[in-house]
Amino acid sequence: MARELFLKNYMEDCVWELLDQVLAQDPEACRCDSCRHDIVALALNQLPPRYVVREKGVIYSKLAMLEAQHRADIYRALTQALMQVKKAPRHER
Ligand SMILES: [Zn+2]
C-alpha cells in the first residue's frame, strides 16, 4: 500500500497548547469555541510556520515543546491576539 504523506504545521499544536495558559491570565476573556479559534488563527498568522512531514495512520509521539524563545514568541502572539478578539468578538457579548 502506498504511503500517504501529509504536511503538518507543528506550530499549530504549540499555539493550541499554550492557549489555555494565556486564557488563564485573563478571567474576563471569552472562552467560547469561536473566540478560541479566532485567537489561535490570529496568533498563527503572526508566527512562522513549522512544517513536519507526517504519514497517515502512523501515531507520532508528541514533539518536545519548542525552545523557550519560541514559547515566548507564541505567548506574545497569543496575548496580542487575545486582546484583539476581546475588543471585537465576532458575536454578541
Ligand atoms: Zn466568544
Automatic annotation (TrEMBL):
What organism is the protein native to?
Neomoorella glycerini
Kindly give the Pfam families that the UniProt entry links to this protein. Answer: ComFB
The cross-references to InterPro entries, in alphabetical order and at most eight, read:
ComFB
What this protein is called in its record is ComF operon protein 2
